[in-house]
């Protein structure tokens, strides 16, 4: 037993060599039907079947592994293609949304033919969720000046408070420093829409100084009244969400939900009064009248007596 354990590998090797030689011998003399051929066939045939089964199983396993690897690579390629298509689809959706918004701004510009309009993109904003103060990429280079009105397709955003060479600052109606003369489109009741620091956290503002006898109610559209040198009449500011009577009982105020989505502003339209600009240019470029010219060319009289 110790001998077998010691020379186990050699014994198996000799056995394999013997069986291989026997298989070769029996294959060469398979036509014989002698006792030796029968005995060899009895021994070798099961080995041939076993070898064939092992070879077939190994081949199938290798083929299966190769197929799985091919499928894995194909799936990875398909995933990459799907990711690219999803990214492209998302990009096209953004382009489509931007085109729709620009078309809306163009339609808005056509509603105010008396005003020159300038399109601009938002390039920066104050921290926070709401667009209370932000910058646009238009300034003196596009004739954008202080106190020009800033619009979105839905309604008023605010006004220009600072203008620079290539950018301008916008103060929205949500900001507590903002104040716009307003009225109810349905009833004509007047008031002032102001930004409110506490309401701004909810994206709201308030309309103050409403007469106690006014018939303003929830759902009314609030527009600019035109009682301003900045905002023309009839621009949508928002809609009444709630009406509250002041403690003195003499006035009311209303909570206003702005028409503009102040969480998502990407492009704006700046309005400037073309007629006022033309009037200003006309006054500055008119030649002096004949009386003024004569007065300016006449010699001045020297006053006083000689000493």
Explain the overall architecture.
The structure is a single chain. The protein has 307 residues and is α+β, with helices and mostly antiparallel strands. It has two domains: 97 residues; 160 residues, Thrombin, subunit H (Beta Barrel), CATH 2.40.10. Helix content is 41%, strand content 26%. The protein contains six helices and twelve strands. The strands form two sheets. Strands 1-2-5-4-3-12 form a six-stranded antiparallel barrel. A hairpin with a 5-residue loop joins strand 6 and strand 7. Helix 2 packs across helix 3. It is elongated. The protein starts with a helix and ends in a 10-residue tail after the last helix. The C terminus is likely disordered.
Summarize it.
The protein is an alpha+beta fold.
Query: Would you identify the regions where 5 or more consecutive residues have pLDDT less than 50?
Result: 275-307
CATH class value of the largest domain: Mainly Beta
Task: Give the DSSP E fraction (strand runs of 2 or more residues).
Answer: 25-35%
Helix content: 40-55%
The largest β sheet comes out as: 6 strands, antiparallel, barrel
CATH architecture identity of the largest domain: Beta Barrel
Overall number of domains = 2
Calculate the terminal CA-CA distance, rounded to whole Å: 156 Å
The averaged pLDDT comes out at: 78
Query: Which class of secondary structure composition applies to the elements?
Result: alpha+beta
What is the β-strand count? 12
Strand arrangement in the largest pleated sheet: 1-2-5-4-3-12
What is the N-to-C succession of helices and strands? HHHEEEEEEEHEEEEEHH
């Amino acid at each position: 037993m110790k001998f077998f354990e010691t020379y186990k590998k050699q014994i198996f090797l000799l056995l394999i060599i013997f069986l291989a030689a026997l298989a070769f011998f029996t294959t060469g003399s398979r036509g014989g039907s002698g006792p030796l051929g029968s005995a060899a066939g009895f021994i070798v045939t099961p080995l041939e079947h076993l070898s064939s089964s092992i070879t077939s199983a190994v081949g199938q396993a290798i083929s299966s592994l190769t197929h799985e690897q091919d499928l894995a690579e194909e799936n990875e390629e398909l995933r990459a293609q799907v990711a690219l298509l999803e990214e492209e689809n998302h990009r096209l959706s953004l382009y489509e949304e931007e085109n729709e918004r620009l078309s809306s701004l163009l339609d808005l510009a056509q509603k105010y033919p008396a005003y020159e309009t300038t399109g601009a993109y938002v390039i920066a904003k104050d921290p926070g969720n709401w667009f209370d103060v932000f910058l646009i990429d238009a300034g003196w280079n596009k004739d954008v000046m202080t106190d020009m009105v800033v619009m979105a397709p839905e309604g008023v955003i605010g006004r220009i408070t600072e203008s620079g060479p290539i950018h301008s600052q916008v103060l929205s109606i949500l900001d507590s420093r903002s104040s716009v003369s307003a009225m109810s489109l349905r009833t004509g009741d007047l008031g002032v829409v102001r930004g409110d620091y506490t309401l701004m956290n909810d994206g709201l503002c308030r309309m103050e100084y409403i007469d106690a006898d006014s018939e303003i109610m929830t759902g009314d559209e609030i527009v600019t009244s035109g009682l301003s040198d900045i905002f023309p009449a009839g621009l949508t500011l928002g809609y009444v969400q709630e009406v509250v009577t002041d403690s003195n009982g003499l006035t009311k105020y209303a909570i206003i939900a702005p028409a503009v989505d102040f969480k998502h502003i990407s492009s704006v339209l700046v309005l400037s009064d073309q007629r006022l600009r033309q009037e200003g240019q006309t006054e500055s470029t008119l030649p002096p009248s004949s009386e003024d010219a004569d007065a300016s060319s006449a010699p001045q009289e020297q006053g006083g007596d000689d000493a």
